[in-house]
Amino acid sequence: MKHIIFFISLCIQTTMLTAQQGLKGNAASISITPPLEWQYTLGGYGARMSKPAEGIHDDIRAKALVLKDGDKKFVMITADILGFPPNVRPMLAKKLASQGWSEDHILLLPSHSHSSLEMFALNNKNVFNMPAIGIFQPQLLEFVLERLSTLIQQTESELADIKVGTAQMMLEGMNRNRRGAASVDKELTVTRIDYLIGGPMAILVNWTAHPTIMDDKDMWVSGGWPGYLQRELEDWIGDEVVAMYYNGAVGDQSVIAREGVSHYEKAEYYGRRIARQAKAVYDQIELKNNASLKYAQFSVALPAHKAHPDFMKTGGKEYQLDENKIQMLLEQVFPETTQIPFLKIDDLLIIGVPGEMIAELGLELKNAMRKSGVAFPVIGGIANEWISYILTEEEYHRGGYETSTSFYGPTLGSIIYEAIIEASEVFLK
Q1: In contact, 267 and 214? CB cutoff 8 Å
Q2: Got the DSSP string for 290-355?
Q3: Cα separation, 66 vs 190, whole angstroms
Q4: 98-126 burial by CB neighbour count: b if 16+ within 10 A, else e?
Q5: What is the pLDDT of residue 11?
Q6: Could you give the CA distance from residue 219 to residue 40 in angstroms, rounded to a whole number?
Q7: Residue 209: is its pLDDT beyond 50?
């Protein structure tokens, strides 16, 4: 297919790995909450105008799961953060290159919390000094890179034989399509990783809903409802288990949060409700002793940068960008190519999507993977970098906020979708 550019065959052979010697792993956690004195802003709302965070409501953290088979290794990192700009993963890989790490073996999956670090504050190509989009802070970028590199090194240092299992359930009345479309992803997918000798190591939770309970007036650092979800699971399971949350095709999926008075209370109640369901799934999972591991990454050429005609009505107004400024921003900050990572841990297949894909496309992709024999396919949303919203052509032309912040024209959704289907045919052979 013309839209997909594969790495050279040698690279595919080295990264497309199936476990042969017995899978080892470890999981760990680290705080990524910077000191308030640095006066960093919170991401997700242009209306904050880079106003500094006023307090720390709860600790934001990054979690790592390192998997290793022989001399082949892979790390999946989840983080209580809005998203990662394109520079973070290559810079992280460079810091760890002497220890055998490369970009191909690192998967970053942010929770998309709108009360955590501003994504553009971590982007070293952000030279615009515009409060509405976030001002680049070199100190903040170096802090995040140092914490993530320390986390990976510490996690890799204590690997053990593991057993793995995944299960799934449908949740009703917990999320909705905020654009009014019919597509709602109700699949809660839980992966359990235990030590082979017994005892819990990690629980991975995939659930698709925007962490936007807090709004632009909430100025305390928080992991949002995903933070509560993870803390509850770690408390309930105990034994120093590491709970890792990653979002799905979240582009048009919002929470249904009924309980609580303040936004922080609503986030707490919602996170606990999801945790309760995830724990019920976790308790029923059957573990396999001989789990398989497979991973690969495929590069995709993106369409030309293009702001939607409606951009000035919504995104342009929020982020104070005119037509000239948005085009300069797109050409300076947004990539011309992106990557689609695949990670298969036994029956679980994580398809990394580098932006906010709408649920219609995500559900179609998961159904296609099931037809190919995958038991538990999930979308890993905003994987490695945020390129924009990813919509069908029909939804693109409908307009609205999501459309106005889709920056590659009406064909982006079909190009990403077709690239994933093409790549999966190679990956799943």
Answers
A1: yes
A2: S--EEEEEEEEEPPPPB--TTGGGTHHHHHT--HHHHHHHHHHHS-SEEEEEEEEETTEEEEEESS
A3: 18
A4: eeebebbbbbbbbbbbbbbbbbbbbbeeb
A5: 33
A6: 11
A7: yes
> Both ends of the chain: CA-CA distance in Å?
17
Q: How far is CA 371 from CA 206, 349, 365, in A?
A: 20, 13, 10
Q: What is the DSSP letter of 265?
A: H
Dist CA 14 CA 16 (whole Å): 6
How far is the CA of 327 from the CAs of 44, 141, 322, 405, in angstroms?
20, 25, 9, 12
Write out the DSSP string of 22-88: --EEEEEEEE----GGG---BSS-GGGTTPPP-EESS--EEEEEEEEETTEEEEEEEESSS---TTH
- The Cα 120–Cα 312 span in angstroms is 20
- Over pLDDT 90: what percentage of the chain? 81
Q: What is the DSSP letter of 179?
A: T
Q: Which residue has the higher pLDDT, 275 or 307?
A: 275
How do 175-177 and 106-110 pair as beta strands? Answer: unpaired
Amino acid at 199: G
- CA–CA separation, 101 vs 303, rounded Å? 30
What DSSP element (H or E) covers 15? helix 9-15
Q: What is the pLDDT averaged over residues 87-114?
A: 96
Q: Which residues pair with 220 in a beta bridge?
A: 55
pLDDT confidence bin for 47, thresholds 50/70/90: confident
Helical (H) or strand (E) element with 198: none
Q: Report which of 198, 227, 188 is spatially closest to residue 63, judged by C-alpha positions.
A: 227
Residue with tokens 């839209």: 3
CA pair distance 113, 247, nearest whole angstrom: 10
